[in-house]
Amino acid sequence: MSTTSALLGALLAAAPQPVETIERAVDLVATRVVPIYRRIFKPECVTLMAEGEINLHFDVAIREKHDEKCGGDPATASIVDRFRVLRGTSTVQWYDPVNGEYLPFERFLESRRR
């Protein structure tokens, strides 16, 4: 394999993969977010729910799970956070309720370090 072919292969492998389905978007959010919430919630006490999709993105909510094991009112599922996954780039954005807009995922990480 030539150096050019190897470099091209490496660039293509590193390129963001488009997200085609809401299930894949939920999986991507779970992979990036659930480990952060483990410091706050037991993993079995949060759930990810698809909220919607349009041509450009998918929306995913993190909700508290309320049952005998996790406590809380089983008739409610409070939203903890919201995320948006951009279809073409797999970019994950965080909804900042204070500013009312979706921000880069890094801002979510910064908000959790405080």
Q: Give me the secondary-structure category.
A: alpha+beta
Strand order of the largest sheet: 1-2-3-4-5
Number of helices: 3
**Poorly predicted tracts of residues:** none
Helix content: 25-40%
Largest sheet: 5 strands, antiparallel
Percent of sequence in beta strands: 25-35%
Total number of beta strands = 5
Mean pLDDT: 86
Shape: globular
What is Rg?
17 Å
Distance N to C terminus: 48 Å
Order of helices and strands: HHEEEEEH
Describe this structure in words.
This protein has 114 residues and is of the alpha+beta class. It is built from three helices and five strands; from the N terminus they run H-H-E-E-E-E-E-H. A hairpin with a 4-residue loop joins strand 4 and strand 5 (101-104). The protein is globular and about 60 Å long. The model has no long low-confidence stretch (mean pLDDT 86).
Keywords:
114 residues; alpha+beta; 3 helices; globular
Question: What's the arrangement of secondary structure elements?
Answer:
Elements: H1 3-14, H2 22-37, E1 46-53, E2 57-64, E3 79-86, E4 92-96, E5 101-104, H3 105-113
Antiparallel strand pairs: 1-2, 2-3, 3-4, 4-5
Summarize the structure.
The protein has 114 residues and is an alpha+beta fold. It has one domain.
